[in-house]
Fold this sequence. Notes:
Layout: H1 2-39, H2 44-75, H3 80-105
Amino acid sequence: MIETLAHYIDLIAKFVEVIGVLIMFFGLFFAFYRGIRLTGGFTHDSYVEIRQTVGKSILLGLEVLIAADIMATVVTEPTLGDVLVLGFIVLIRTFLSLSLQVELEGRFPWQKERTPPEPPSKNAPIDPS
């Protein structure tokens, strides 16, 4: 009974890995489609749009792959070596996710969003000094 359950969870983990890879793969094509469609050709704006969309699809794919790694490790009888390997994989993928998020948004996730200063109102009195 337990072996059958472990077998199915292992299959589910492999399926989730495939989903993670497909998210990144199709995200690349979606990024090109979206970037060209929104800007009407290859311009600097389309480059920025493609780069943002590819980064987001990589982030999502990495998070799905981390979930698959955790499922695959939990279903087996983990040894200390298996747990260390999983820890290193999660650490590397988390670092990649964090650095991609900083690259895309220009700030760390725990930092507040920078709001641009408000322009002065047209009806505001002008300070003569």
